[in-house]
Amino acid sequence: MLIAVRVVVVTTLLLAALIIQFTVRELLPINYLYTTAGVTYALTLCYIWAGNVIASRKVNLAIQTAGDLLVETLLVYFTGGLDSPFSFLYLVSIITASMLLYRRGGLFAASGAVILYGVLGDLMFLDVLHQPEQSWFIPTPWTASRLYLNMATNFAGFYATALLTSYISEKLQKTAENLAALRALNENVVASIPSGLLTLSPDGVATFVNPAGSAILDRDAGSIIGRRISELELFTEEEWEQIRERLDTGAIFRNECELKNGERCVGYAVTPLNTIEGTASGYTVIFQDLTEMKKLESELRLKDRMAAVGELSAGIAHEIRNPLAAIAGSAQVLKKSDALSPQEQRLMSIILKESERLNKSIADFLRFVRPQEKRTTEFDIAASLSETLDLLANSAELSADHRIERVIAPPAYTVAGDADQIRQVFWNLARNAVQAMPSGGTLRVTTEVSDAAYRIVFADSGRGMTEADQRRLFQPFRTNFPSSTGLGMAISYRIVQEHGGRIDVASRAGFGTVITVTLPQGVAGSRGLAVAG
What we know:
This protein is α+β, with helices and mostly antiparallel strands. The protein folds into four domains: 2-175, no CATH class; 193-289, Beta-Lactamase (2-Layer Sandwich), CATH 3.30.450.20; 294-369, Helix Hairpins, CATH 1.10.287; 377-528, Heat Shock Protein 90, CATH 3.30.565.10. Helices cover 55% and strands 16% of the residues. It contains 14 helices and 13 strands. It has helices spanning 2-24, 31-53, 57-78, 89-125, 144-192, 211-217, 221-224, 237-247, 291-335, 342-369, 381-393, 419-435, 467-471, 488-498; strands at 196-200, 206-209, 253-259, 264-274, 280-289, 377-380, 402-407, 413-417, 441-449, 453-460, 502-507, 513-520, 525-528.
């Protein structure tokens, strides 16, 4: 930049002198100006060469400052020496050095100016160096006192300019560093917060988004900035207009919305954005992905409902079970009587059958509200899963149109937990999948081991579930199958929870269901068994 500015200034001065000379038809003494311009151009080539050879920025600036002082001394000599009005050019070099090299550079330039101007003045005062013949100014006799006064004022001006300019430059540098640090801190804070931050212009066009906002919206910043808010799926155009009307009253707008056809829930707050002066400059949208939080809330509500049902129903179940046992025993005795007709015998059989079914339902319910104590042992979970699938494959519930596919990898894996309870979970999930395919279909069971969990996936090609069915899937006595008690999935859910795992459900009506059981290795997993083949 200095090289370019220097060349432009010298060329402009030279052209201006030529234009004046040809305009007024008067020969001006500009031969020395040619010499000065030539020296400047020659030094410029040296600066360019030095910039390519010397890597240090400070050294290059010092070289250019020294060259400028020499050119300025030459110009002062040609234009009157001590009477020259161009001595102020020393101040330009001093200010430049002070701004770019701070105090040390300013004092270096001031000292160079003092030495060159002092030597030039002394040589011309002592008549060792004569005034050029074509000087622009007629020299006047100088006395010793006038010389000393001129030198003192110029030297004082040089050093004062260097100190003052370098002081201001250093203050500006510190201020710029503080502003840069503050800006970097602000950017780091905005980039580190887990919530999305989106700023909008007054007409609803996105002007900024932080990394968390890009991740939540599943778009990069380039595809967000410059788009209207209605194109980002947060609000429709009509909703945005309603929000703006409320914001104009000074209120903060809070709400929730769904992204990607209801797969994700996002909570947001919209506030007006004002400048430091208090004038409106747009809007700020702070939003957060609430999908996992909603799932946790749903799980907590489910646990609360289960606890309430258990506390209320445990006593009722016992009260029903006692008279039920009496009824079943009495029916069993009456059935053995020869005095009963065939019709009465059939009715007694129905009573016994329904009593047994009701007793099984009560037993399942009591197992749900009062689960057995978990007996933690090390067992091969992959082998337990394979055995459960073998039992199901040979059960009467499977027809010729059902097919079970399995990909169990690794084929053996040891975990710590209650083997019977985990096997019960596998049986309930696999049996439910088969019941969801009354006309036949494929049940695919796969496993995988990640860094933190052992994961089992049950995927069927059955009739699937609606969102309402999924919400009530793990609730007791809620079932989609006529022959089921509605407790199998609730018991499975509770067992997995007690083992520190989780059950995730993904389903669409008519497209089958995928249920994933995840058991964390820190609780349920310990080590794997290496099996060849």
